[in-house]
Specification:
This protein has 343 residues and is of the alpha/beta class. It contains 12 helices and 11 strands. It has 2 domains: 169 residues, D-Maltodextrin-Binding Protein, domain 2, CATH 3.40.190.150; 112 residues, Periplasmic binding protein-like II (D-Maltodextrin-Binding Protein, domain 2, 3-Layer(aba) Sandwich). Strands 1-3-2-4-11-5 form a 6-stranded mixed beta sheet, with helices on both faces. It has a 5-stranded mixed beta sheet with strand order 8-7-9-6-10, with helices on both faces. This is Tripartite tricarboxylate transporter substrate binding protein.
Length: 343
Amino acid sequence: MSTNETHDRPTRRRLLQSVGIVGLTGLAGCQDIAGSGSDGSYPDGRIEVIVPWSQGGGTDRATRATTPTWAETLGADFVVQNYSGGSTQVGGERLYNADPDGYTVAMWNMPQMQATWLFQDAPYGMDDFDYVGTHHLDPTMWFAPPGSPYEDMAEFIEYARENEVTVGTTAAIGNTALSALLVEDTYDDLEFNLVNLEGGTPTRQATLAGDVDAAVNQPWAFNPDHVGDVIALGTHDSGGQELWPAPAFGELGLDEIPLVEEGFGQWKLIVAPGGLEDEYPDRYEALVDSYAEVFERDAFHARAEEQGGLDEILEYNDPESTATEVESYSEFMEEFEPLFDRF
C-alpha cells in the first residue's frame, strides 16, 4: 500500500480487540497560548491524548511527563487514555476516527505507526494525519533475565545456536521485531521462538521474571530504574548509548547484522487527526506552538530527568520535519516487508 494513500473515513470505529482505558487528567496552568481558535475560545474543553500502549510503558510515561507542562503552555486540561492492542493499531484507529477539532491527539511511535498501514491493512495512511512534532528517539536494545548464562549479545547468539530460545518483542511489527528478525536472518544456524508481548511493560515484566531468554525493547522505555536487575546484552548500533551501560553490536564484532552501522530506534511523536490544520488552522497552530514551548520549560526537563534520564534523548522537530521523518521511516520499513511476513 502506498504510504501516501488517503482512505475514506469510515462511519464506525473499528477496533481489533478489547480496549483498556486508563485516564489521567493533566493540570491546567497559566494560559500562555490559548484563545487562538477560529472562534476565539479554544481550548474550552479537555484534550484527549491517546497512548496506543498499556499504562507504564515508555510511551505512556513520556506522555504523562509531558502533559502537565503542555497544560500550562496551552491553558487546557489533558486526559491521557490508553488504547493498547494490535501493535498500536487500536489506538491508531481511535485517532483516525476522532473529529479533527483540536481536542484529540496521540503520542504514537515510529516505526510502529508506519508498520500498521504497511503490514496490517490499517484503514489509514500517512496523509490521514497531521503532525505536531517529535518528542524523543530511543535506541533499540536487547536485554536478558538476571542469572542468564550469557553476558552480551555475542554470547547470546552462541548460546542460541545450541539451545532453543524465546525472544520477546514489544510488537509484531516495528523496531524491536525488526531487530530480532535481522539478527535471526543473519545467521543460518539461528532460529528464535519470537513472541509479541504487546508493549514495553509486559516485555519488562517477562524479562524480569525470566519468562523469555532475551527481549528487545528501548533502554529508556524498559526503564533505567532497572539497571542491575537485568543483563543489558547490547544496542543495535555501532556506537552505543549513554542511558544504560551496554556494549553496541559494533563493539561486539557483530557488524554483519544489518543496520548496525546506521543504528535505528523508536521515535515518539505527537499526531493529530487529519484535517485539523485545514479545518481549524488556528487551533492547529496553538497546539504546535504550545507543544514546542514545552521543550523550553525547565519544569518539563526536570520532570524528564526524574524519569530515568529521558531528558538526555529529548529531540523536538517541527511539524514539517516530523512529516518528512514519517515518510522516510515508511520507505525504510517497506524494504523489510519480506522479513515481517515471517513473524
